[in-house]
Amino acid sequence: MITSTDNPRVKELLALRKSRERRRTGLFIAEGPREVERAREAGLTIHATYVAPELLTWHDPHAEEVSARVLAKMAYRAEPEGILAVVETPRRTLPTDGTLYLVAVGIEKPGNLGAMARTADAAGADALVVAEAVADPFNPNAIRASAGAVFTLPVVEATLAEIQNLDAHLVAATPQAATTHTDADLARPTALAVGAEDRGLPKTWLTAAETHVAIPLKGRTTDSLNAATAAAILLFEAVRQRG
């Protein structure tokens, strides 16, 4: 059992909290029994599993036991659930024959990006495309918000040029659009681009988009929606139009 927070393996795991280290190593942390189990069910390669018997009973002969104090040091969450695993990041490619893509442009909050992945998966989208990435889809908060969707849904980074090369028309979500999302044709192959909620989509994306759509708002003070909420509305409008 690992009982010291100075153990080299603890330090290696802590380094994976940083996006640049996750990119360098090709590893990320799945934290909590649901996330670890879903990573396993998705067939991802698990390099190490750490469990605190004081907090959780986990039947895995390959799991390394650690004290509750050590697990609390390793965990990203304030109240750890007793288990975490070091997992190999899945290598996905952008599917070129898809009919529905969600493009997250410049999203800053990992929780938003994770929620977008969860919704894209629920709507049957072919991929979540992360463009001009700020948030990391394998940040622990993104993984938790995705409910494990990032383990199976193709989540890929791509440029505007790569999106334009797809056989899908680019639809930009912007509050200034004259066309409402329900009036746009989302039944044909479509890439839905949603920007960060504070800045929206960059001008380059707005210029490149074939269609601009807005979600009508009736609030007295609200002038925008959370990026993940806007993405959900657009995705399921596309689903509705497709019957």
Please describe the topology of this protein.
Elements: H1 8-15, H2 19-25, E1 27-31, H3 33-41, E2 46-51, E3 64-65, H4 68-74, E4 83-88, E5 100-105, H5 110-122, E6 127-131, H6 140-146, E7 155-157, H7 160-164, E8 169-173, E9 190-195, H8 203-208, E10 211-213, H9 227-241
Parallel strand pairs: 2-3, 5-6, 5-9, 6-7, 8-9, 8-10
Antiparallel strand pairs: 1-4, 2-4
Helix pairs in contact: 5-6, 5-9
Fraction in beta strands: 15-25%
Q: How many strands in all? A: 10
Q: From N to C, what is the helix and strand string? A: HHEHEEHEEHEHEHEEHEH
* Termini Cα gap: 55 Å
Helix fraction bin: 25-40%
Sheet with the most strands, sense and barrel status: 6 strands, parallel
Helix/sheet category: alpha/beta
What value does the Rg take, in angstroms? 20 Å
Which segments are poorly predicted (pLDDT under 50) over 5 or more consecutive residues? none
Describe what this molecule looks like in 3D:
- It is elongated and about 60 Å long.
- Helices cover 32% and strands 19% of the residues.
- By secondary structure, the protein is of the alpha/beta class.
- It has helices at 8-15, 19-25, 33-41, 68-74, 110-122, 140-146, 160-164, 203-208, 227-241; strands spanning 27-31, 46-51, 64-65, 83-88, 100-105, 127-131, 155-157, 169-173, 190-195, 211-213.
- Strands 7-6-5-9-8-10 form a six-stranded parallel beta sheet. A four-stranded mixed beta sheet has the order 1-4-2-3.
